[in-house]
Design a protein that fits this description.
The chain is an alpha+beta fold. It is built from two helices and five strands, in the order αβββαββ.
């Protein structure tokens, strides 16, 4: 596994542990639809009666920017499409949903270190994003 992938996995593991400690009930990790949609949702979890679609961004420095900045409009649209696919596949049409982002900061040598990561949870980090204004009819609104 490449170092970048290893760091991402370490960050996701830390994020899931953090979410569980905050009372989230994780139901899926790295969820991908079985159809032609591309991408994956890092974590899907319940917080009370709300279904949360969670993107995890891990950083060791600001070289690539703040973690939340990586969840740009394109990524938000992709996560929105994936969330729609999940909700449809699980027949959860009347369930309140939201999008959260977890930022994980690892020390640069985290693979060899026991230093705890810094974690920030951004609840309701963005709203549902449609692909384009022309396709607004029939779009699911979270």
């Amino acid at each position: 596994m490449k170092l970048r992938q290893q760091r991402g996995q370490t960050g996701e593991d830390a994020a899931v542990d953090y979410l569980k400690a905050q009372g989230y009930r994780v139901v899926a990790r790295n969820w991908r639809p079985g159809n032609s949609l591309r991408g994956e949702v890092d974590c899907i979890a319940w917080q009370g009666q709300t279904l949360c679609f969670i993107e995890v961004k891990t950083r060791t420095s600001l070289e690539r920017g703040w973690p939340q900045e990586a969840v740009n409009l394109t990524k938000q649209r992709q996560l929105s499409r994936l969330a729609n696919a999940y909700v449809s596949s699980q027949q959860l049409d009347d369930v309140p949903c939201r999008f959260d982002v977890v930022e994980v900061w690892l020390t640069p040598d985290r693979a060899d270190s026991k230093a705890a990561p810094r974690i920030a949870l951004r609840e309701n980090a963005f709203d549902y994003r449609e692909r384009s204004p022309r396709r607004s009819q029939g779009a699911r609104i979270f």
